[in-house]
Amino acid sequence: MELNEATRKRSCVSTSRSLASDPDRLSALPDCLLHTIMSFMKARQAVQTCVLSTQWRHLWHSVPCLDIDLDEFKVDKDTGSFDDNDIDNDTEWGNFGNFTVNLLLRCNIALLDSFKLRAVFHTLEDLELDNCTCAFHSITSHTLKNLVLKNCGWFKLSEITLPTLKTLVIDGGSNCYLLVIVAPAVTYLLLDVNVDYFVGRISIKEMPCLANASIHQRGRGHMVENQLPGNQFNLLCDVSDTTSLELSGFGIMKLSEESKPFQEFKNLMNLLLDNCDLTDDFQMLTLFLQNSLNLEKLTLRHCKFPNDSKQKKGAQKPKKTSPSQCQTLDIQCDNLKLTEIIYKDNDVRQLVELLMCISGKMPKNYIKLTKVD
């Protein structure tokens, strides 16, 4: 018995010495190959490699692929009670959330080739992505209520389907594909895009609950009609259920046979046109006045108007609307109470003449002129 025990100990000592004397062949591999190996691991496993040796201590900081899986944080449930299950779920989500946040703060996200977040968010209601590069094709959820996409590059995003969404903000960013938005419960919509980078079209399905909509287009070509994603005429028709509408940077609308009929803005009460081009004899403005029977306030701020006094030599002067033409305009804005025109050096005479000409169709309207420096 003692002989067997002594033999076993000598064997263990011999094995330990052999392992200690053998070189660490895995650590001898170049970092790029070690990163490839780590890319096949789940994120938590990749981080745990830091204890293997000094060389592995910081390798996970620059791993090219991150695969964060909620299953790695599952807690063994020894009881079937609901209270204990709730505590276990809170622990899982707490550990998962803390790990994910700390990992993303320490890894070089800009150099990632692949990022996977495996979790079923049964109660996720708010999601904000800021300055992210996204490779996914769609965003879908049955619980999400607020979605903010700020300065994101989503080159393949083609669908946003969120039946419970209340707030949708797309601020900046870039896209190359048709983006179809299906969010019937949205009450607030903000689209603020740079037309030089956002070349994909936008198609919005019906938003019957929409209360406030703001659409801004910026960039060098922001006054050019076809620069706006989705064609600005069709996009306006997509938000026709809103009660308050703010448009900025809209150019002259060129209607074509493919354009859908201009929709009736039956709920619209407040309209703000900011830095819009109205030099086409106020065509866009006229369309709104003809199709917004419940409009109460109209604001024109820093818009571009036809200019009589600064016409270039040889340029054709814009046609003035005659009284007979005013009578033929199908405008009934009985509820319009205030039209505020905020301008700098623009010649607003033609606009005022148009409003005075159709004043009989807007009996309650008060025109307020505000010149700013």
Largest sheet: 10 strands, parallel
Q: What class would the helix/strand composition place it in?
A: alpha/beta
- How many H/I helical runs? 8
The backbone outline, from C-alpha atoms, is elongated
User: β content, as a range?
Assistant: 15-25%
Fraction of residues in helices?
Answer: 10-25%
Mean pLDDT: 80
Topology as a string of helices (H) and strands (E): HHHEHEEEEEEEEEEEEHEEHEHEHE
Q: Which spans have pLDDT < 50 for at least 5 consecutive residues?
A: 13-19, 222-230, 308-313
Give a count of the beta strands, DSSP E runs of length 2 or more. 18
How are the strands of the biggest sheet laid out side by side?
A: 3-6-9-11-13-14-15-16-17-18
Termini separation: 103 Å
Radius of gyration: 31 Å
Q: Tell me which oligomeric state these chains represent.
A: single chain
Structural features, described:
The protein has 373 residues and is an alpha/beta fold. Helices cover 24% and strands 22% of the residues. The chain has eight helices and 18 strands. It is elongated and about 95 Å long.
Please outline what is shown here.
Residues 26-64 form the F-box domain. By secondary structure, this protein is an alpha/beta fold. The chain has helices spanning 2-21, 31-38, 43-48, 82-106, 232-238, 283-291, 323-328, 349-357; strands spanning 65-69, 114-118, 126-130, 133-134, 138-140, 146-150, 153-154, 159-161, 167-171, 179-182, 188-194, 202-204, 212-218, 244-248, 270-274, 297-301, 338-343, 366-371.
